[in-house]
Amino acid sequence: MTGGGINYGRNSNPSTEMYFGLNIRPVRNYPNKETSATSPSVLEDYGDVLLSPSTNLFGFVKDSHGNGIAGVTVSDGYSCVSTNSEGLYEITANAAARTVNVTIPAAYEIPIGPDGRPAFFYPISIPSSGLVRKDFTLTARQGGAPARFTILALSDAHVQNSSNLSRFNTTMADVQATVTALGTGIPVGDGGSAGEVIGIALGDQLWDDMSMADEVRSKFCNLTNTSGGTVPVFYVIGNHDHDASGSTDYERENCFVNHFGPTN
Question: Which CATH architecture has domain 149-259?
Answer without folding.
Answer: 4-Layer Sandwich (3.60)
